[in-house]
What does this fold into?
Amino acid sequence: MIEIKNLSKTFTLHNQGSVVIPVMEAAELTVARGECVALTGASGAGKSTLMRMIYGNYPAAGGSILVDGVDLVTAEPREILALRRDVLGYVSQFLRVVPRVPTLDVVAEPLLSVGVETEAARDRARDLLARLNIPERLWSLSPTSFSGGEQQRVNIARGFAHTYPAMLLDEPTASLDAANRETVLNLIEEAKARGAAIIGIFHDEAARDRVCDREIDVSVFTPGMAA
Amino acid sequence: MTPLLKVENISKFYGRRIGCKDVNFDLYPGEVMGIVGESGSGKSTLLNCLAGHLDPDTGEVLFEMRDGAMRDTVTMSEPERRMLSRTDWAFVHQHARDGLRMNVSAGGNVGERLMAVGARHYGNIRDEAIDWLGRVEINETRVDDRPTQFSGGMQQRLQIARNLVTGPRLVFMDEPTGGLDVSVQARLLDLLRGLVREMGLSAIIVTHDLAVVRLLADRLMVMKDGHVVETGLTDQVLDDPQHAYTQLLVSSVLQV
It folds into this structure.
């Protein structure tokens, strides 16, 4: 489902002395349907960078990233947009929303994008929000004023609204208490059971051990650090 | 899928000065392209060349007509281009008064476009006009008022209603929120976002405001001194800019 070959990445900061920072070299990774692979490595090793490259958010310097047969390194913008809408979901570390949209609509949006009818999309959103313990009185409010943990749960609800065949999860259990962490782990297990290929970053070792089948330490891809 | 619009080698010179040079891109149905750049970058020149307001010196602007044929709108006859701009195309100006008839009522401004494409039944036209005014949050009670009696934000929303009532497939927008108060801008952006999604519009939006493109545009072109220096998915260009100028632009934006 997800296949990465010989991937490399360099940052060039033109306005800061033209400093060139190579961050990744010869990265390889394969994730099959129903598998969950954890990216590990110290802070700054390149875990989020790799995840953003898989999403097409950061361009690659070389190599290939195949998701459901589409190579994000060479695909046209519209192919990547379609992939993100139908196939590849991404739950980032921080909730980023249009400031004035109610929580219910924030969560329903991915379903509206794939053509689900409004009320059905909202029903699914209600289910997820209830499961993630977001009180009903908050559903009509914009999540921008919520606490960090509440925002993260809205973020996750949005990420799991549509049944993506491939998912990228960046610290999904951060900022959550034990009960909510349990709910999120259940959501991940359900996604695996229906055949989703998942790549996750978990600083929480217990969470990682519970849902991930394998671990990849991204530090081995850092230039100059190969074993 | 075939592109809705194919822009090939568009250049425009003002004497020896470059307005814009060698612009190429394809736009697909439902895609929103943002064009950003600072003052003098050539973005408005480019937009006006694409929309037929200016004649480019080189290049073609191929549009997929309703019958499926790709026609070069640069060499189209004036009457044909005018018809296009009243049906399949729309242009939202920065200053609403450039896109409205200020001495005609709000309802009239919207209804006029319907009449231009053949609508004849007064009652139906009025109903549809009122419906559209509602969609842009202009109260029914204002339907017979002139735009001169509206606030800037309301005038802009009226301009949008007037432009979208004929169900265009491609909308050009020149700084659609420029000059409006911040809260009014916010409401307008939300409105545009909803309409673009609901109607499956393709749009080309020129702006100097990166927050506007982040919100509205799928793809982004960055212009400097008449040239396109970078292009790509909006989130990619803003989160990991590759060109020196784009990096400068992105790092200059103040965080709130």
Q: What stands out?
A: The longest helix of chain B spans residues 182-199. The first strand of chain B starts at residue 5 and ends at 14.
